[in-house]
Amino acid sequence: MPRYWMITNRNKRRDGLGGDRAPLSYWVADKTPLDQFGNWREVSAAQFQRLLLAATDRFPLIIDPARHEAQKHATLFVHGYDNDWKSAARRYESLSARLFEGPAGLGLAVLFTWPSDGMKINYYPDRSDAAASGADFAQILNALFDLLAERQQAGVANPRRACRAKTSVIAHSMGNYVLQKAMQQAWTRNNQPLLVSLINQLLMVAADVDNDLFKSGESVDKSDGDAIANLTYRVTALYTGRDPVLGLSAGLKHFGKRRLGRSGLDLSYPIPDNVWEVDCSSLIPPDADNIHSIYFEEPKILALMKEILRGVDRGVLVANGLVPAA
Description:
alpha/beta, Rossmann fold, 9-stranded mixed sheet
């Protein structure tokens, strides 16, 4: 059974994956380091799904609702701006080791790597690639939606055939823009369904999207934020005002809206009840550098991310000191 999983819309090259958009391809690996292309092997979409289902079917079956926090996860990880495929693979390998592997791990993670150019000066091309990649990521979400609907029906008929894994997403930086565009397309394709939560927990980490994304509140206006809120059980935005990368992003856009990952939610609008934020500034060491990505390196933030993904209640997270006092 594979240990590592990757879906990409990058073009294939002899020595790895490139920076151009291409049809989706599916990859698995059994050993590290994951930034060595020879450790990956390509499989068909059907084979990838079969292998992934077989892996999740090995998870413990949790039927008792009181034990839902113990249920394992199958998590999609979407990297951000300025990541070539090798740096994305290294980030994924580290995240998998810290949060998902081992007896106490959350389950398994799947990397979605899109054609970010891996160049700090290429903000605008990366944003264009992210917007286009939304359609490709939507294909993955649509397939997931169909599978969840099928498993839901099977679980009603026989509880032992129910899903053994929660589905969650961790999106970093501009990867949240990929997700935003994909969720809108998935919601539209499925006729704005309100009966199935496609994603159990969504972590929007240092999100390079407008901070008024969820301004529709509880009303239905069919916006991108409306799609995310309706297809997700709980949305958590992790942010810090100390992030210089998102300060640059806001300056480049010139649209006047702050970045969600730098300023938090725009609370001048009503926010959907299942959307909340955590200011991680006090969890980041005073002398830290690379703050835009430190969420994946700082133990306190990783511990918080793990408990959020498990589905621990917000009030409990605050009471246990994992969430800094406001």
